[in-house]
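Long-time lurker, first post.

We've been arguing in lab meeting about whether flavin mononucleotide would sit comfortably in this protein at all. Half the group thinks yes, half thinks no, and nobody has a model to point at. So I'm putting the question to the forum: if I give you the sequence and the SMILES, can you give me back a predicted structure of the complex? Inputs are below. Any interpretation is welcome too.
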Amino acid sequence: MTLDAGRFRRALGCFATGVAVITAEFDGAAHAMTANAISSLSLDPPLILFCPSKKARLSAGLNLIKEFSVNFLRNEQEALANYFAGAWRKPIAPTFRFVPGHCGPRLEGSLVTLECAMHEVIEGGDHWIVIGRVVHLHDGVEPHYPLVFFKGQYRDIDMRQGVPAPDLAAVEDEPPHIFYHN
Ligand SMILES: Cc1cc2nc3c(=O)[nH]c(=O)nc-3n(C[C@H](O)[C@H](O)[C@H](O)COP(=O)(O)O)c2cc1C
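Top reply:
Settle the argument with this. Predicted structure of the protein with flavin mononucleotide, as tokens:
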């Protein structure tokens, strides 16, 4: 069965994510790109990954990049998400500033920035899987209101509706409960 590309994109759009701007320096300039294909990967060592399209300009510099930053966006930063996705159509660019971080430039005013040393680049179809080892964390200003992306739209989350998820760090030593399903 060949997968319908539109349905595939719509299905993926049902997985709500945050939005980040990846920043890195190569060829003597700061480069930035909006991404939501981002995941935590490993706690020990601390690894994360992001997936740039092979066509993205950032991908052309992957063999030169030794470090990069993943800047999670705050809910009022959707203009920056559009700008760094190359989708800004207004004459005046939104206000932003790159500041020197521990791993090259970081986007000032982000929710949180993960500063990473390049760990590995793996091929993943028409994208690259870029794995970074997090070497420094930069905490943004509280309260942490994230920019959320769901079904092709930027969203706000209702911070009043929280229900605690299990604290897996606290139950680590308990035997696992295995549910079998026939
Ligand atoms: C919310 C959002 C999430 C995106 N996530 C990704 C992503 O994870 N990977 C990717 O390659 N492009 C992603 N894009 C598209 C890139 O930001 C865009 O194609 C990129 O800026 C192109 O870079 P270039 O103009 O430097 O080639 C996303 C765009 C938006 C608006």
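For your lab meeting: The two ends are 26 Å apart (CA to CA). The pocket of flavin mononucleotide is lined by residues 19, 33-37, 51-53, 56-58, 81, 84-86, 149 (CB under 6 Å). Whichever side wins, do check it experimentally.
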